[in-house]
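Same chain as my last thread, 84 residues:
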Amino acid sequence: MNLDSPALTKAIRRALRKTDDGMTITELKEVTGREYGRISSVIRQMPDVYIDRWQQPVKRGGGYAAVYVLVKVPENCPKPQKEE
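reply #2:
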């Protein structure tokens, strides 16, 4: 991992927390100002980010774009009560 990976990881999480719809790497590039390849590399190592769906290509002949979302972890998951 590169030295800027922790900062980029935080920036990606921050951006994905702000949207329920998810973001493509191109959209994350616009928000973070980092290179496409760098974001792609870091996002693959994030266990709390996954591909939710694939988006139609914007340009003719372009490939589908993965839309990434952040796992929503509940604040508190109470233990079940024992039955008496």
